Amino acid sequence: MFLENVLMALKAIWANKMRSMLTTLGIVIGTAAVIAVVSIVQGFSQVITNEVQNLGANTIIVEPFRPPGKDGDKLGKIVLTWEDGLAVMRTCPSVSVATPVVQHFGEVKFGEERSQYPILGVQPVFQDVRNYYVDLGRFFGALDETGRTNACVIGHGVLTELKLPENPIGRDLLVEGRNCNIIGVMEPKGQLLGQELDKFVMIPYGTAVGAWGHTVEENTAFLVRSKTPELVEQAADEIENTLRVRHRLRSDQPSDFKVSTQKEFLKSFTKFANGVTYVVAGVVSIALLVGGIGIMNIMLVSVTERTREIGVRKAVGARRSHILSQFVIEAITLALVGGIIGIAMGIGVGAIAAKLIPNWPGFFVPIWAVVLAFGFSSAVGLFFGIYPAAKASRLDPIESLRYE
Amino acid sequence: MSALIDIRDVTKTYEMGAETIVHALDGVSLSIEAGDYVAIMGPSGSGKSTLMNLIGCLDTPSTGSYVLKGREISAMNDDELAQIRNKEIGFIFQTFNLLPRADAVQNVELPLVYSGLPRRERKIRAEKSLDAVGLGTRKHHRPNEMSGGQRQRVAIARALVNDPSILLADEPTGNLDSKTGEEILALMDDLHRGGNTIILVTHEDDLAQHAARVVRLRDGKIVSDVRNHPIAG
Q: How much is the ipTM here?
């Protein structure tokens, strides 16, 4: 009986292909949106998680920061120097190493080739803090730092873009008009979400402050590494306390710096992903509502068109429940057909999106999203199919048989 | 032995607006034995359609009693009536009333679907029923691929398939040419000889001559009840 109803429903849907297609459009769009967005958000999460793992779960970033609002305005000049960083290393037991990082964009030339790159001033421990090492040559040593040498380490992407020889060690680059000797090339990282990760030039921190001046020195950020990943939160607290004491902040004043961990970064990303999900859920629920009303409308038309059929069925012995279930099943089948088309379209869109975005970890739709899409479309069919079906089941057989 | 159909003092009234009450049936009593072939005749508005709907358990009387095969019908609810129609009544309509998207077998098995028979048994019985009306070669044709006479044979096969107590035919030849109409009437004669109880509702005297007994209605009352032939068997 159930299978019969499903087959009958499919036959009725097939007999009115165009009409059925238009009717289910809302459901198609709704489920396609669910699948596509879920697959894209999932891929995005994967990328972010990979990146965080790559960076190391025990990395902490400390930056100068003016908090928003009145309290922030009252703080006066925001200053963060490497003196603060050294104090952190001295006083925070959970911190293992730290490097200052200063950065700005500048022109880099090799022969006739030139381009704008981020130029970073870092210290020798950068490699260990960042978990990111040279591929060729060597990194800065203590002498480069103290002697403020004109040495530089380049990202892998600079190699090809500036048409450097395959082994560029010992060649000179013109970094903002200053001749810098290439001592190392970092390992290639590729792209992340369309962002080039291999196009930068590093110089010793000391050289950078010497060249860029006092303002830069007072705006130094640090990359800090805690002793173990478990100690990250504790290290962050220690840094916060140390710096607040050093900056003589009263307990009613906000911090004039920001300490962020990967955990917080993940948290804020999750927040963003959830936001996307809520927006999509809103769009989807409107699409499903419209789709459901479409189904109700077409089922009402169908009941009217098939009044005679209903009369015949009742005459040969169909009870109310038989007619009710027939039309409810038809509505659910209609919604599910829309759902299946939508899922297929969503998978298509997700797969195309995955192809278009470089460095995507591969296309993936979680099974729960498919189940959810199925569940929602059948629920819509059930909810909006009940009224027309009830109307059909209540038809008087005598009237129905006479209906033209 | 009590009669197959025992209708006593049945009235059926319809309210047409606030004031007017129409007496479609006005104190009708009628008894029909199993195996009889009864024509119910009368001009339009005589109440013959109302009587047919009552006998066919599509409707219940306003007052009076209707006992079919020993069971009182007049107080039954919709679902009970549906069950009685399913088991006891086989309808043959003027306009055939076949499902357009279903083939002959699927149309014929429809009553069995609502009896809850398993698929395999339904197919066997539907095909047997189609063989019985001479449509053994047209089992998988749809109504629009068949002639009017063939469609009415499918409808008769559907009416017979659940082995009902009564075949109830409402102007079964009304949509057919006279030659095809004769063939259908001959088929019904055969069915009567085979032991089926047939009630034929018509306004044509020619048709009524096929029946063993002719009941005439006028203004909601039985005005004559004549037997042409003895009950078969």
A: 0.93
Residue type, B157: A
What span, in angstroms and rounded, lies between the C-alpha atoms of B151 and B157?
10
Report how far residue A107's alpha carbon sits from residue A168's, in angstroms, rounded to the nearest whole number: 18
Residues 152-171 of B with CB under 8 A from A: 158, 162
Contact between B191 and B167 under an 8 Å Cβ cutoff? The reply is yes
Task: Kindly provide the b/e burial profile for residues A306-328, where b requires at least 16 CB atoms within 10 angstroms of the residue's own CB.
Answer: bbbbbbbbbbbbbbbebbbbbbb
Rounded CA gap, A35 and A138, in Å? Answer: 47
Neighbours of A300 (CB within 10 A): 14
| pLDDT single digits (tens) A62-87 | 999 998 888 888 888 889 999 999 99
Rounded to whole angstroms, the Cα distance separating A139 from B103 reads: 83
Q: Nearest CA to CA, how far is A375 from chain B (Å)?
A: 29
Q: How many CB atoms lie within 10 A of CB A116?
A: 10
Residues A209-267 have pLDDT tens digits of 988 888 888 889 999 999 888 888 899 999 999 999 999 998 888 999 999 887 777 78
CB-CB under 8 Å, B99 with A319: no
Domain B36-58+78-227 class, CATH top level: alpha beta
Hey, is the C-beta of B15 within 8 angstroms of any chain A C-beta? Answer: no
What is the residue extent of each domain of chain A?
2-51+267-402, 66-255
Domain ranges of chain B: 36-58+78-227
* A197 vs A65, higher pLDDT: A65
